[in-house]
Amino acid sequence: METTTHEFQAETKKLLNIVINSLYTERDIFVRELISNAADALEKFRHESITKTDVFDGHVPLEITIDVDEKKQTLTITDTGIGMTRDELEHNLGTIAHSGSNTFLSELVEAARKDISLIGQFGVGFYSAFMAGKEVRVQSRSWDGSEGHEWVSDGSGSFTITEMKGLHRGTKIIIALKDDAKEYAQKWKIESIIKQYSAFVSFPIKLEGEVVNTVQALWTRNRSEITEEEYTDFYKFIGNATTEAMYRLHFSADAPLAINALLFVPQENFEVLGFGRVEPGVNLYCQRILIDQHSENILPEWLRFLKGVVDSEDLPLNISRQALQDNALVAKLRKVITKRFLKYLDEEAKKDEEKYRKFWSTFGLYLKEGVTSDYEYQKELGKLLRFESSKSEDGKPVGLADYVLRMNPDQEEIYYINGPSRAAIEAGPYVEMFRKKDIEILYTLEPIDDFVLSHLAEFDGKKLVSADRADLSLVKDEEDARENEVGDDGDSLDKEGIDALLQWMKEELDAVVTDVVVSKRLVDAPAMIVNPDGFMTSSMERILAASRKDQGLMAGEKSKKTLEINPKNPLIIKLAGLREKDEKLAAEVVKQIHDNAMIQAGLVVDPLEMVERNYRILNRVVD
Ligand SMILES: Nc1ncnc2c1ncn2[C@@H]1O[C@H](COP(=O)(O)OP(=O)(O)OP(=O)(O)O)[C@@H](O)[C@H]1O
């Protein structure tokens, strides 16, 4: 019979190399990977056979069989699943099927370097067979009934495929074990791995003729009958996790939709650990039959960190994966489950804020992503956001609902200001008036925060307002206004002096500001930059400029700012005097004040020009 020889794809060779040489401490997972592939193949077959009648070997029971042979040192895993045609064998077991295989690989290398045990979370897939096998044979026959084939490789660089007659539907994997992997030919060893990793596989696993797993869908059982241990074991199984989950939500509903959902929040955020974007971790079932693994449809993208299952009897069993995407029922399910989960988080936060804070620091970024990308859940998400504030303890962010409770009776808006750190914000000009009037202000310390709050726009009927807005309504009452206005107490400038100074400063700064005005808000600082348009905050502007630069785009038109000055500040008072004596130097000082205020706003100035000017001023000082 004709045998063809094929080279592994370059990426596959790399992967094989890693699998064989660096993952040996995590060897046990290869059993889990092969069982999970077998279960996938069975699920696929079950799903397909619902709609098709002409399936090959239709009478064969759906199960996984495992046999060990201590004498021959082999381990054999057989499934009666969907099987593979010749082409599928060549393609699926010769290349890396994952999308973006190269990124996957580099992440894998990265993970191997960091913490080998984390790699188990990703699933190395079929190739993990070579962790323990010196040779792997895959005999497979597709459910379409075409002739079966055998695939053979020692994992070094190539594989062969030969036609093989008389096979049943499904796949048999025969692993000739390496000398140092003999233990995998022992029944107890395999049994303990199955108990640890594969207890919840939804098909019988027969080890040497004996069923060793409980084939029951945990999520369909009554909550009160499920033990903590069972939940944890199930989470470990479904999330490939080694620890228990941070949060768990198990809920059922009958109307308007029949839903059974079991969702887990992991302990770690793998995206920030440097593993790239995580795949969605929730599987969609209909009456216990898997119809969409790692479903992208059942939850919004920003909940991709969740693990678990959703089962709904209302879904048509024969729905194709493509049809799921724009199925109205799936959209409804998504909405119900998402809202329920967000409500659950809010309840948990109320019960144990400390624990929720841990969740927030690990997964808060996803919820922020939700606010900026999904209008539908903004109200629910708003309650879950946390920020540091002028009234929060360092490192203990507060929620918007708490802020609202503490608001002054006459306060109508919720204020926030962006900055690189609590210390930097508190030393800056924007919080001065808030401090003086004892009004709480939120500190947005992350680049994305201002986008989040501007998308949210309001909370509990109160507008969210950045404190770098020009038209801040904070100084409303006349008293304040008067207090901050120019007095004639000799310490400050008179009205004419001020007007003249403003006029002149405006001329000097004409190219960079829209206006120079007397501030009603500054208490100590000489000046600050505010945004006249009130839409973009300085932080948002900085980030957009940086991202344009990253993308190699031309810098956008810079929006012009307004400079507010404090006529009670000694520097400003003396500036008027200096102007009379040495207008040239005074003009340099004006420009420097502007640049300083820009820097405090987190905005970019021309460093070359600014440093040169700074030296010119210093030279005069030391003269
Ligand atoms: N027992 C099997 N029966 C049928 N097809 C299989 C079997 N094992 C593997 N395959 C096919 O080979 C492909 C590659 O398997 P591999 O385990 O490397 O990746 P995967 O299963 O797609 O990804 P992951 O393991 O990360 O879930 C699978 O997608 C599947 O199409």
Automatic annotation (TrEMBL):
Gene Ontology molecular function: any one: ATP binding
Record GO cellular component, one term? cytoplasm
- Annotated localization: Cytoplasm
Give the start-end ranges of region A. 1-321
Provide the alphabetized UniProt keywords: ATP-binding, Chaperone, Cytoplasm, Nucleotide-binding, Stress response
UniProt-listed InterPro entries: Hsp90_fam, Hsp90_N
Main localization (coarse): cytoplasm
Q: Has keyword ATP-binding?
A: yes
Q: Which domain of life is it from?
A: Bacteria
For region C, the annotated ranges are: 543-623
Reported function:
Molecular chaperone. Has ATPase activity.
Per the similarity annotation, which family is this? Answer: Belongs to the heat shock protein 90 family.
Q: How does it assemble?
A: Homodimer.
Q: What is this protein called?
A: Chaperone protein HtpG
Q: Which organism is it from?
A: Desulfomarina profundi
